[in-house]
């Protein structure tokens, strides 16, 4: 019954805004963990679109897709945190600008 | 009681390569518990697994077969790609064995991760559903993040893993958002249904769909390291262990191109006028940035990273041409690129020793006086990468360019040919160092048998594909 009051466009806008916040976070912040969080915001913004499309267009693939996205995000988090911890053992910092061994 | 039938679309024989390789990958993990410090057994089991995978890929007849409600396809493209993937993974494992012993990488997961990564690549090349393509991309990427950082005590390796992880996950976001918008505007994740929708409807001017396609280009562009989304490649290639670098330059890149080609030639070919110009820009930028970047490098791994960016540019021309001939040329290019790249990286590994990888160009000065055969093979690989006849690289480039000309992309081909000419500058720079400079120090090369085997396989492949390409070309066209 809420379908009339909140149109699809609103969900899509919300999702787009969250996605852009994520992008800006990745590009602007220098703390590894915060960058990482911004990436997760991007993935979840996509989930909102997927579910909204499914609900308004009477589809079902998107719900399965969003479950897959969550699984993948969880796997990525575990690998990502492991990498950050391995890095932190060799160089105790979380500032991205200090990782500058590799550059021309 | 009525017997319960599985839905017809569940076809485990079509999925056989994925299943076989997954079982072997997990088997290697378990075996590692008993194997102790000696990883020979693991290497052997992995190689057997890859061989079985390649064989099981041909279990399904007739092709093309569509399984799992059209989300998994066994067709000519995927079969040939499976052969390239198993070959490149096998060569990686052969390259890794002695390197890992030398550099003290003592983890058995290494082999398992390479096999799992190959599973992802097979899924990527065989999927015709965006959900499956997404999962394939992620299986490949997550394995590679770990492989890039497998030297836990090495700062460069750590840093490479972190950079690869952050930018890879960032790219995943774009890819995913692109897929979502395409799904939302067409109502399906299946590539064939998307194609039908795009054909039948006035979808040509749907802004959501176009936006989705742009985001897909960005996402795939990151994964294949095409400019301007290439920033991660040089750092990651330099920091990762050398066999992993060779692997990344061939297998996962081929897989990403397979999916790239499938999505753009099967799902949205009708929208070509709108994405052609975008992809052409990316292709030209990749060639220019890759070649100009490579000229300035002094580290050979970094130089090959930039060279692989320019190769991504050439391969994108095949994606843009999108005919079946272009698909065949993509296959041939990837195969010849695999032989050449693995050979070149084999030489790079042979030249290093424990603690000293000798990756600077100066380390190659005078190689031809002390080890003429090694210098000669390196020259063959570099000339083939540049596209000099009679080596494989020339036939591969010729094949792609002729496919593009047939589709009428003359300007693009002219730019690509000019770029190949530029690329000779830095490939020949290495040759000049090897043949015309005095040796800077002693070469302390131990010719380890398995790395040598990879170099020889690479050499045979490069020359064979260059001089007698007919057999393979007839295999790629069907």
Jot down its keywords.
heterodimer, A: 104 residues, mainly alpha, Helix Hairpins, 3 helices, elongated, B: 478 residues, two-stranded antiparallel ribbon
- Please bin the fraction of helical residues of chain B: over 70%
CA-to-CA gap between the ends of chain A?
59 Å
Tally of helical segments of chain B: 19
Distance between the termini of chain B: 47 Å
Number of strands of chain A: 0
Strand content of chain A: under 5%
The domain tally of chain A reads: 1
Strand order across the largest sheet of chain B: 1-2
Unreliable stretches of chain A (pLDDT < 50, length at least 5) are: none
Helical proportion of chain A? over 70%
| Biggest sheet record of chain B | 2 strands, antiparallel
Number of domains of chain B: 1
Shape of chain B: globular
Brief synopsis:
The complex is a heterodimer of chains A (104) and B (478). By secondary structure, chain A is an all-alpha fold. Chain A is 74% helix and 0% strand.
